[in-house]
């Protein structure tokens, strides 16, 4: 068996907190969101004042949404101004052709089984960075903007309605906006599967303890087995 | 000549001639001011405009439409002052209501356009076919597309009655074989107010005309061009069944106990949560009822392209290009399934490669 030869502190505490708050709020948002779209539980006959069925699910959705937004904004701050070389945006430059060069190509080739060696990165590899940009940055932004536009609908002329209401005509009405929010929510379960698979695979193939690193913060380098 | 005589009368004179008391006239002015969201101090301005200003001439055109906007106010069983106003607006040209027809009637239209150049309101019910030079809607020997462009050129403003004129309604629903297009896509250089709905509420229609008559401008519009006074809030937010929504008490089929108890119609496909209109506030036929009040879900008739947004009686929208059986969740589940299958296949290849590499290493050793 390989021996641990190096221990690297990759994910600092704020990043780990961000990750788990983000994961938890997405799970809550997805479940409550699906429930709001198709409420299942019907209370027994009685007075409407006795029950808060739908109101409770919507309230949970909004609470989780604002935690999600605050957490997302914190992560943006940390990515732009945090003194954290593995969590910064600095290295991610998709507008520059050189970013799409050798390291990115090698990583893609490795995922497509076109090379036998596995490039190894301490932080995110270029493909992972791109996936996070598309799913987490763009996806979350889309959900936040459309979500706040819908949240502002009950108070026309209010803050959310003024700041985000312009999205409604852009989508061709409130119904289409709701629909877009609903469809795009599914990118998170899709991402979840890809994410979990990629983490487990890297742990098995590279043996860098990437799975536990998001709890402990440490990744490990393992000495290759002497042959 | 007759046209001019009629136009010179004020609203107050018309009401008087029809036996409406001054008290009722003032009540009408006050009610309309309230609907328009005007301050109480503005009521005298409305009264003054109704009393003194000659009525604004209106040319009412009918394109591709079902005449439901017109039907809704001429079929009223209890004539209200709003109906009276509608019959009495200086409706100088309306090809659906006129006794005259043919060249004579078209001459009237041209005469109004000349006499009141830049001053008349063009009310459009229905929309124009734009495909093949508009041959799919011919009125008076010319395409409605041409008539609309010609009449709009000298209008002060355009009122788009109903969803057809505002957003296209059923005529431009997929696949739109006649190329039907709402007024705003054909006329770009005139102020347009979209009095949406299928049909719009009569108080909303009178309110818009009263606003223009009093102030000479169109009312404040929302982001989709509808008057804010009437289209600023959702049906859902003012719905009297909202308590059942918040409680999670839903009608699940049209013959169950909860239907009789008047629970929320959300699961029956009610579009109230995404529809901006005044139905749950002003209601219909002088406050008698509105669709949800009669136990039917809102179909969202004042929203753009409401025909193409899935079935009326289910919550989940169909996605037209993926067939009639698909919806948001089915797309999502297929995507998740594809991701899982992809991950599994990738894992399998990884395992096979690893096994091969291990065995070849063993062979070497």
TrEMBL record, chain A:
The Cytochrome b561 bacterial/Ni-hydrogenase domain covers which part of the protein? Answer: 10-217
Instruction: Tell me the InterPro entries matching this sequence.
Output: Cyt_b561_bac/Ni-Hgenase (IPR011577), Di-haem_cyt_TM (IPR016174), Hydrogenase_cytochrome (IPR051542), Ni-dep_Hydgase_cyt-B (IPR000516)
GO terms classed as biological process = respiratory electron transport chain
Topology in the lipid bilayer: Multi-pass membrane protein
GO: which molecular function terms?
electron transfer activity; heme binding; iron ion binding
Q: Does the keyword Electron transport apply?
A: yes
Cellular component aspect of the GO annotation: plasma membrane
Q: Where in the cell is it found?
A: Cell membrane
- Ranges annotated as spanning the membrane: 17-38, 59-80, 129-151, 183-200
Q: Does the keyword Transport apply?
A: yes
Which keywords, in A-to-Z order, does the entry hold? Answer: Cell membrane, Electron transport, Heme, Iron, Membrane, Metal-binding, Transmembrane, Transmembrane helix, Transport
Tell me the NCBIfam families matching this sequence. CytB-hydogenase (TIGR02125)
Its family?
A: Belongs to the HupC/HyaC/HydC family.
Protein name per its UniProtKB record = Nickel-dependent hydrogenase b-type cytochrome subunit
**Organism per entry:** Chlorobium ferrooxidans DSM 13031
């Amino acid at each position: 068996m390989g021996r641990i030869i190096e221990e690297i502190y990759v994910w600092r505490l704020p990043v780990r907190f961000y990750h788990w708050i983000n994961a938890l709020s997405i799970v809550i948002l997805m479940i409550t969101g699906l429930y709001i779209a198709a409420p299942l539980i019907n209370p027994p006959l009685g007075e409407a004042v006795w029950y808060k069925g739908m109101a409770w699910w919507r309230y949970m959705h909004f609470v989780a949404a604002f935690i999600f937004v605050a957490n997302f904004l914190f992560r943006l701050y940390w990515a732009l101004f945090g003194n954290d070389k593995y969590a910064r945006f600095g290295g991610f430059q998709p507008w520059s052709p050189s970013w799409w060069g050798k390291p990115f190509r090698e990583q893609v080739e490795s995922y497509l089984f076109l090379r036998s060696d596995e490039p190894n990165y301490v932080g995110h590899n270029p493909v992972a960075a791109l996936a996070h940009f598309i799913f987490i940055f763009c996806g979350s932004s889309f959900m936040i903007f459309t979500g706040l536009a819908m949240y502002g609908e009950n108070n026309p002329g209010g803050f959310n309605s003024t700041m985000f209401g312009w999205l409604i005509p852009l989508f061709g009405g409130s119904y289409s906006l709701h629909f877009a929010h609903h469809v795009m929510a599914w990118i998170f379960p899709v991402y979840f599967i890809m994410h979990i698979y990629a983490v487990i695979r890297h742990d098995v193939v590279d043996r860098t303890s990437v799975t536990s690193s998001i709890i402990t913060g440490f990744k490990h380098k393992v000495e290759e087995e002497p042959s | 000549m007759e046209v001019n005589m009629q136009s010179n009368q004020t609203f107050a004179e018309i009401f008087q001639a029809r036996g409406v008391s001054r008290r009722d006239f003032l009540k009408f002015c006050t009610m309309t001011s309230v609907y328009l969201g005007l301050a109480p101090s503005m009521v005298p301005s409305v009264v003054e405009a109704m009393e003194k200003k000659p009525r604004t001439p209106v040319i009412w055109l009918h394109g591709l439409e079902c005449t439901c906007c017109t039907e809704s106010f001429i079929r009223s069983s209890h004539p209200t002052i709003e109906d009276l106003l509608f019959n009495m607006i200086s409706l100088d040209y309306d090809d659906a209501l006129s006794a005259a027809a043919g060249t004579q009637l078209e001459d009237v239209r041209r005469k109004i356009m000349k006499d009141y150049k830049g001053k008349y309101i063009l009310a459009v019910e229905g929309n124009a076919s734009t495909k093949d030079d508009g041959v799919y809607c011919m009125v008076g020997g010319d395409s409605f597309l041409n008539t609309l462009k010609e009449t709009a050129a000298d209008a002060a403003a355009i009122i788009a009655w109903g969803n057809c004129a505002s957003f296209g309604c059923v005529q431009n629903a997929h696949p739109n074989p006649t190329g039907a297009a709402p007024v705003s896509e054909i006329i770009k250089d005139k102020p347009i107010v979209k009095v949406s709905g299928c049909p719009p509420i009569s108080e909303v229609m009178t309110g818009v005309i009263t606003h223009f008559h009093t102030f000479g401008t169109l009312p404040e519009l929302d982001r989709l061009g509808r008057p804010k006074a009437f289209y600023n809030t959702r049906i859902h937010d003012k719905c009297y069944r909202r308590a059942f929504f918040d409680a999670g008490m839903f009608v699940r089929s049209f013959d169950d106990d909860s239907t009789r108890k008047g629970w929320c119609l959300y699961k029956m496909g009610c579009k109230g949560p995404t529809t901006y209109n005044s139905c749950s506030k002003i209601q219909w036929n002088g406050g008698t009822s509105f669709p949800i009040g009669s136990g039917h879900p809102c179909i969202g008739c004042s929203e753009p392209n409401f025909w193409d947004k899935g079935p009326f009686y289910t919550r989940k929208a169909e996605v037209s290009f993926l067939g009639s059986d698909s919806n948001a969740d089915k797309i999502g589940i297929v995507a998740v399934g594809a991701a899982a299958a992809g991950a599994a296949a990738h894992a399998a290849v990884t395992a096979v490669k690893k096994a091969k590499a291990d065995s070849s290493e063993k062979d070497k050793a």
